[in-house]
Design a protein that fits this description.
With 458 residues, this protein is an alpha+beta fold. It has 15 helices and twelve strands. The protein folds into two domains: 236 residues, Ribosomal Protein S5, domain 2; 193 residues, 2-Layer Sandwich (Alpha-Beta Plaits).
Length: 458
Amino acid sequence: MNGVKPAAPDGIAPLPDLLESPPLRSLIAELYGPGEGIFAAQKERYLNLAEQFNQRFGAGQEVRIFSSPGRSEIGGNHTDHNHGKVLGASIQLDCVAAAAKTGDGRISIYDKSYGEDYVIDLGEDLSPRPGETGSAALVRGITAGFQNPSLTGGAPFALGGFSACIESRVLPGSGVSSSAAFEMLIGGILNVLYNGGKLPVEKLAVMGQYGENNYWGKASGLLDQMTCGAGGMAAIDFENPSAPALRRIPFDFASRRCVLVLVNTGGSHANLSGEYSAIPGEMKSVAAFFGKEALRGLTLTEILRSLPDLRSKCGDRAVLRALHFLQENARVDEEIEALKGNDFPRFLSLIQESGDSSYRFLQNVTVPGSIEAQNIPVCLALTEAFFRERRLNVQTRRAACRVHGGGFAGVIQVFLPQEEAEAYTAWMHGALGYTGEGPSPVFIMSIRPRGLVEITKP
């Protein structure tokens, strides 16, 4: 097959010795936090995954460890697919692979977290296959993207076989982009093993989006993949969607004694593709009314001038979603300026405004027609009750909450003073009836300074 290279040994050190080296100890502390306990837990995780690899694919291969984080959207809710601006951050929850080159032109994957076991033969037709679903469809789509000149910008990127065992701690179906973390992980493995690590995050993100759009049927933008790949807090401008402008925003929430909390409200995104696809579809119907491909560049004056015809032809929800886009796109710049100016109360006010706009205008907190299941509004109401109980926003804003990510199900995002995190966790546990069995629905996040990375880089 064109672009497929044979396997070749890389000569990396034995994994246990490599993990104990000072550079890797330092890297693991960056990714997951400091402390011997955290290091020991991650080392055990990597070694267990490598042992799983040996059991399934045979010992003696040079196993390498790759990590791709989930992400938290900070600003720019549903703006990327209309060439908008976003502010996002990678988080410490990640998707990890133990992988090794093969010379057979086949990608063989065992996904420990989801119990999936599949093979993609790179010598066969990589077009979508009827009935193929899940991760296998995504991998096929990503590899097809590597060979697509319209995506690569010319010659196809190199492909080759590898075997991998994968384990993910990115919450599935909850809005922290488990699918994008997986997509970037696959692209990252192919980048390192067969392209010398030269492909930029932006290109790998396009491959992930291509797989998701065309092989999974989900009309996602590039926000998730770009944020997972970039690391830290990143501002991304999609005015030119084929070449998004990425810049990192150096800000440490811990310096303001603030924690980022995600609350898993229950439910899953898995069966909501239609709801997500409707958002960009309706926004673009408004853009099309004005002869545009996307909403970027449209002004409020233009909308107001044509409002009666616009409401008649596109519908009121489409108009409201377009208004959300215009306001949210401008709000991202304001959030960045607030962080750069060290005006944290203003930043939190903008986060709250973003959440209110998503609730009222974008309308992505409940599935239309759902009466009994309104998990996100319930958890937002509980959180705001906690704010009032603790008087967190009486004189100046010290806390904020909003729907997170795609919405409709999954996660809300909460910003809290560090000293309130324990009380808030107990408050939500009590309100949601959490008894201590299974994982807590409340996750105290840290922003991970690195995105897609090979842990065992020689």
